[in-house]
Amino acid sequence: MDCRIRPIRFICASSIRFRVYPTLPQRGALARVFGSCRVVFNDAITARQAAHAEGMPYPTGAELSKRLITEAKRTPDRVWLSEVSTVALQQALADADRAYRNYFDSLSGKRAGGCVGPPRFKKRTGTQAARFTRNAKFRVLANGRLRLPKIGDLQVAWSRRLPTDPSSVTVIKTPTGKYYASFVVAVEDGAEVLEPLSGPEAETGIDLGLADFAVLRSGKVIENPRFFKRLERELKKAQRALSRKVKGSSNRAKARFRVARIHEQVKHRRLDWIDKQVATIVAENQGIYVEDLNVKGLARGRAAKSWHDAAAGMFLARLESKAKRAGRTFAKVDRYFPSTRMCSACGALTGPHGLQELSIRTWACPCGARHDRDVNAEINIRREGKRLVAEGLADT
Q: Which residues belong to the active site?
């Protein structure tokens, strides 16, 4: 595939990931990069923890760079840091600094979202990554290979063109031993805007649940795929086998790989399914209205495993992002809006509510209307979303 870069007008950053296939020597070089970045990151945390314990101010990024990289290369314990690109080590320090800033901003209330804990030490197991910026002089060659400093030319499985020159590339190794290159590129304004749709059928509300993943306009149902539940028995078997292996043995490494592979299968199937559902909904609807669910709260309740498996939070986040990029109308209805209890015919709050009445799937209103629980909720969510948009009150 032609991977040459096309010049366009760019406005915002986006990441594009491709699979890479390093040779055996290149895998060794990447392992050194991953290990060096991990050590520098952990050394930065250790230095700041020591400063805090002694009542001293935190060392600045420049001080840590000089102490943990420049001076450390001259010591016998860290002389091997000179074998990898300095840019990747600097990015590891930047990651540690960003982690601390996020932690302090969370404590002071400057950072939106849930509370963020202090940075933790990185371990060799799990996902490993190293980032190279333009200062590292990485580049995509004419033959389609990715040239990285002190690593070599990596074979890349290109699935699309890079729209612009990448500002950075992150090489990632997954727990199953696969390698990826994630490029940060700038994208053109309006590059993903779709043709506008008209007509009353081009709008839908979305009622999320567990029995059915989502109910859309006209009673269209998206079934819950339950990817984790399908492989849960196989995962339990693999985890039991892992627990019986001797720590540090090659058999334990093989058993750990089998567990990681099952988790990866669940992840990839879920991501692929969510992306397809989001693309279909955005392509078929001009107006999309959803309920602002408290996903974190639901994921701590009795059905926590099922909500984690459904990944409703990820679905809503990707749906909102893609809808905005495509030029669609997207609005969130307040989570306390009584979409289930309200009769879509007369507006009376006569429907089932509460955990005790989750089993009630159909109900009759005293006005004579008979409703399916989820279909009625979708109608109310769509109407409320359209009202919020019309009055300029939509929380998009």
A: 207, 291, 374
